[in-house]
Amino acid sequence: xxxxxxxxxxxxxPLYVIDTSISLKDYVPISISSKNKDLNFDVFSAAEWExxxxxxxxxxxxxxxxxxxxxxxxIYNRSGYFNSEENKRNIHLGIDLWCNAKTNVLAVLEGxxxxxxxxxxxxxxxxxxxxxxxxxxxxxxxxxxxxxxKSIENIKIGDTVKAGEKIAELGNNTxxxxxxxxxxxxxxxNMEANFGDYPGVSSKEKLPFYKQNCPNPNTLLKLPNEI
Length: 227
What we know:
Largest sheet: 8 strands, mixed
CATH topology: Glucose Permease (Domain IIA)
Number of helices: 4
Number of strands: 14
Distance between the termini: 26 Å
Radius of gyration: 16 Å
Number of domains: 1
CATH superfamily: Glucose Permease (Domain IIA)
Order of helices and strands: HEHEEEEEEEEEEEEEHH
CATH class: Mainly Beta
Strand content: 25-35%
Helix content: 10-25%
C-alpha cells in the first residue's frame, strides 16, 4: 500500500499531537514561506517572531498556527548549521505548530521511545524525542522537536507510550534552538542510523529522497486548510 494512503487510513479522525484541550477550531494555517510578504520584520529574531505570531493569532482569534510541510523558508539563513555553501537547506520536512511554551506534547500514536537528544546547535531542534511505531508490519517514526529540557530528563529508550499520552512540553527560545515556541512534528520511514535527531530541512537537491522518506504529517493530523 502507498505510504500516504496507509497513514491516512490509520485513523478516520484527526489525531492530536498537542494539548487536546485546544479545540481544532482554534487552529489556523500560516505561511512562513520566503514568498510571504507579511514577514516584514527581522525573521532572524525569536523575539520578533513571538510578537508577529501573537498578533497573528489574536487577529485570527486562534490559539495555534500550523503548517510548513515542504515550505521553502528564509529563516534558516541565519544559521551556518543549515546554510553551508555546499549544502543550503531551506525546505521544511515537517509540520510546525506555533503556540505557547509549556504546551503539552502528545504521542500521535502508540509506540515506544526510539531515541532522544538535546540538539543544541543554534537554529536546531533543541530537546527532541523520536518514537517508533509499527502497524500491520509497517514501521515508521515520529519526531517531536523544540521541547523543554525537562522533557528528556526522565525517559529512556524502549519506554512504551499510548496514543494521546503526554510525552513532553514545548520549550522556549532559550532552549529550543532560538525560535518562538512551537512543535516541529515530522514523520520518518527510514531513520538512516540517526539517533535523537533527523534532518528537518532539506536542500533542493536532496528533496526527492526526503519527500519520499518523510511523508506529510497531516495524513495523521488531518488539519483543515493546510497551506
